[in-house]
Amino acid sequence: MKAPLSNTDTEPYATPSSVWRLRTDAWEYLGYAAKQLSSPSNSHAESKSGEKGLLIEVTRQLRVLEAVETYWAVPGKAHLLTLRARIEEGDYPAALSLIETVTRGFARFRHELDDSLAEADPDAEPLTQVVPAVADPRPRFEVLVIDDISETVREELIAEMASQRRESDAFTYQINVVPSLEDALIAVLLNPTIQACILRPGFGISARHRPGADLRKFLDGFVDPGISAVPPRERVLRLADMLKKLRPELNLYMVADVSIEELAGSANRRFTRLFRREESMELHLSLLRGVADRYKTPFFDAVQQHSRKPAAVFHALPVSRGGSVVNSRWIKDMGEFYGLNLLHAETSATSGGLDSLLDPRSTIRDAQVLAARAFGARRSYFVTNGTSTANKIVHQSILAPGDVVIADRNCHKSHHYALMLAGAQVAYVDAYPLNEFAFYGAVPLKTLKSILLDYRRAGRLDEVKMVTLTNCTFDGIVYDVERVMEECLAIKPDLVFLWDEAWFAFAGFHPIYRRRTAMAAAAALRANFEDPEYVARAKAQRAVLFDPETGEPADDSVWVENRLLPDPELARLRVYATQSTHKTLTALRQGSMIHVYDQDFSHLNEVTFNAAYMTHTSTSPNYQILASLDIGRRQAELEGYELVQRQAYLAQSVAQMVARNPLLKKYFRVLTTVDLIPEEFRETRRPMPLRDGIAAMDEAWRTDEFVMDPSRLTLHIGNTGVDGDTFKHKYLMDMYGVQVNKTSRNTVLFMTNIGTSRSAVAYLIDVLVKLAEHFDRERADMSPRALAARDSKIAELVASPPPLPDFSRFADSYRSCANTVDGDIRTAYFTTYRNNACDYIMPPELFARVRAGEEVVSAGFVTPYPPGFPILVPGQVFTMEILSFMAALDTREIHGFDPEVGFRIINQVPASVAGD
Ligand SMILES: Cc1ncc(COP(=O)(O)O)c(C=O)c1O
Predict the structure, then answer these.
(1) Contact indicator for 877, 809 with CB cutoff of 8 Å
(2) Candidates 471, 478, 580: which one to mutate for ligand 1, based on the most atoms within 8 Å of Cβ?
């Protein structure tokens, strides 16, 4: 029998993201050891020295668990004490049975323990938690009580709460008690099953067990050092704020026998409810109600109820109720494959508990309100045609023809199309290039500030309406959203921001990721703007930014070099985020959301938003997609933290494996922050912050202009001699069924998601090892000529390709001013509708004309795949730089180029307006 991996190199509860693994591994090791020790003929325990070795490791793992399990209610202290006693007595079969009750729970549902611990050992000391004798199908959670109480009082409290349970309760829960503020913070970080905390003013400050160095550092940066001087009542409020910062979804309750009426004002915002000690029944019901409030899914429930109601359909949608399918002789397999529930749930009704997406008044409205709460938005809207449509809705709702929008040139194509439809003047900004890997990073803040200052200098700042950026980028580069908005608002206080978070919906459910989401950043800025200390600092900075005499702004360099603070009295927070919920959380394909944090929404944008929403939304939106958004929100609120933490951890474990395995290292390298974020954008120097712990990640995510999403891995494959596209199709997909989405010439992007399991990760490593072996074998069998050809391909793939070109410029005729870069993409696009407005041109002639200085204007989007970014949009001019780049690309696919006839160009460019 093979020993499971033991975490000999990991200190107890080292980093929250790895504790779930540490915990399951420790229990699994104990199970393995107890089995060995129970059976005399086993290989390890046969000899005295073998038995001794096992017992040393068992003792060590028990110590780890005794520290870690402090933060879990189940299996609980009593279970561990009994286990230790059985091991010390040498009663290994009894120990094994105690361990197996725990590991069975892990096997059933990730690390969730089952409630049947009472079955474990009939002779064991009674467990303090009242647990049912058979596995309970109801969802269970844990409640954390924070109070420094004696063991007897603890037992009484647990027994009192347990006595409130009813068969009819929708959920079950167990209670754990920790004595201090630090223990409470550690518990909610480590134990994602905690859904509610009960704060009682008697708690202390320091953790009972010494936390590992990483957690210690994190706590030191998180807890105000002056907290012990704060009076107990105020301390409860501070702890509540800290818990909400880590896990805003938690229900917090305060139980205090002081006059709680006095606290009600300050506490209401933070607590779900305040209680006096004796009200345990009410507390029990509130705990259940608090979780039920996140569990509820108004629209998903309505769809289910509708599907169960008898109804006759005299309306559209023949598949409704399976009508056109179940009686068909030819398409019965549709019903068999999808199941009848899908067809029963299909309806075009908007009444009878269902609702209209275009004018939501009941269940869809309620589901959207819950989504807004979950994602920290003021309003949320469901979208059934993906973020491609969500982006168009937001752009159209904000921009009138002629408004200037600053947009990342690498933004998703839906933005380019949206801006063309809206008739905006688009000022594209360049992201920093990653030439070695042939893709782009993100747009530096200096670039954004500089372009805003260009418009101010040109006297056109009032025309700039909006900034559109992608966070995080496909490749996982994450902006400092709060800082970008803060500094841009200092230059233009009413700017609107659209953050395309197509790949970032999950980020709202992890304390460190969350800070870099649009909604959290907007809320943080709002809090800053209301903070007198911040207001004073901003005011002081105005004296530097403006000449006190004339009121004129200081030189642009002062604005670029200083970290700007907006004027809180002028700045408006108008922030939109679009998320492909379906890409990173549970939702059916195309399920997306728009989240809004716009202080001016109701008086400036609600009407135009509704009109834009009508423009782009089907009158027959897919109910299954909407219901999946509702239930995906439930999951995110109840287990998002656990899943996101795991996903990032799993990705890091792949990176570590690739870095350590000598065979994998020969062919593959996971690119790190050092590769993907130039030094000028980082203050921290760690290649993989999360690998070094939560404190290291926290530090990088607080300070660096850009950080990497640790749940994504860009694997450099240049040393295989195979390009990214071939690697994706021929090796990963065809040979091993591994799906990836994005490649560049020498990289492949692997993304983990909340559905990624440990076995999937193990499979991926296995596949990479097999591929490495394949490349090894292939090389060994190659003729000298083939080997030379392979080596030259490798040299080409690892060498820097031609530098990625900056975006070109709009033809003068589409620009409204010579000193600013924006262009009228809509006019350019519609020019092409006119008869004979366009021509096709083959590359040699194009080269010649551009070389001769002619302004040749593209009629369409030109996008080579990979890298997949448009290098020209309608109305922009071909440059030598762009043509040379395309000539050097070994790309098979260039959208916007037809090998038969060439590029489409505009041959009737209107008269120039630039410089007017
Ligand atoms: C940055 C970005 N925005 C928007 C989209 C479009 O999202 P959806 O597929 O949900 O329409 C994508 C798709 O890949 C994307 O990468």
Answers:
(1) yes
(2) 580
